[in-house]
Amino acid sequence: MKATKMLRYDWTNLRADLVGSGQGLTPADLEAHRPQARAAVERFTARVDRGEFGFAGLPFDKQPLAAVGIAGLLQNVVV
């Protein structure tokens, strides 16, 4: 399964209006860095698709969960 269908990025706690002026990013900041962010996501996704990260298939990949004795106990995994 492609990582792009499994991963969701939440930028909420980066927002200046939530974490304070000078502490977070404004919509203009995010837009200005969109190309770099998109490239980083594409690089990460390519590495996931090559199997370089063991966590990316969770919770659907049951083997790592079974290895640590928690298969069937989780609905969501936050990394």
Task: Write up this protein.
By secondary structure, this protein is mostly helical. It has four helices and no strands. It has helices at residues 16-19, 27-32, 34-49, 62-67. The longest helix has 16 residues, at 34-49. The model has no long low-confidence stretch (mean pLDDT 80).
What helical percentage do the residues reach?
A: 40-55%
What characterizes the major β-sheet?
none
How much of the polypeptide forms β-strand, as a percent range? under 5%
Give the low-pLDDT segments: none
Query: Given the helix and strand composition, which structural class is it?
Result: mainly alpha
Compute the separation of the termini in Å. Answer: 18 Å
Helix/strand order:
HHHH
Multimer state: single chain
Q: Give average pLDDT, whole number.
A: 80
Radius of gyration: 16 Å
Shape: elongated
Number of strands: 0
Key features of this structure:
79 residues, mainly alpha, 4 helices, 0% strand
Task: List the topology elements.
Layout (H helix, E strand, L loop, with lengths): L15 H4 L7 H6 L1 H16 L12 H6 L12
Concise overview:
By secondary structure, the chain is mostly helical.
